[in-house]
Specification:
The chain contains twelve helices and two strands. The chain has about 240 residues and is an all-alpha fold. The chain has a two-stranded antiparallel sheet. The protein is globular, with a radius of gyration of 21 Å. About 30% of the residues are buried.
Length: about 240
Amino acid sequence: MTNENISTINNLDNNFSSSKLAHQFINGTSKEQFKLIPQLTSMGNSGWEILIDFLKLSDVNSLDLIQGEIYRELYKAKTPETELFIKNYFPNGLVSLDSQANIDYKLLSKSLLEENFQEADTLTRHILWELAGEGALERKWVYFTEVANFPVIDLHTINTLWWLYSGGKFGFSVQRKLWLSVGKDFNTLWRKIGWKKDNHWTQYPKEFTWNLNAPIGHLPLLNQLRGVRVANSIFLHPVWSEKNW
């Protein structure tokens, strides 16, 4: 058998393997798809093509964690193919950066995609001041009474960015679900998300965990001195009736 014949057979095998994986991925459950993503990313271009085609056909108006995981992997890959796809299809990320308050969310999106969570947390805090108005910008914290006036669109954008680009680990909606699960007990919530240990507040910034090894709901942070009332106002905001988070 010649080298050319061996090469042809290898290509056919690879094509068959790629087609089989593509079929498994497209028709699999979410759990199966999550398991297949590392295998596809390790295949090089053929694997990236499967993930790119899947994302092209996805409904980006109804985002889920599979789409977020694929996009994050494509973003991190930094290959000519993945960068061209991102440039042509999702130059500002997977999340629509809508704002009723004319806030530019590009930097927050970039920080979260690059897993620079401390920077993203700082940006989020500043955005909340901006949403609260001039008084909050001057004093550098938010009154709980100002939260009700936050535009639904903006809170939705902020939360979606955190939720999607952390693989569902961070975001106000995640914290809210945990809060509901512990009977709306904030002391229990603070311990559950790592903001408090025993009777001591976690010290900012060195004692917080700025990566995906953090407890679920660890980020973004709220002002702990006024955390109960501000958090309560955020968790009761009308945005949560807009979507089944």
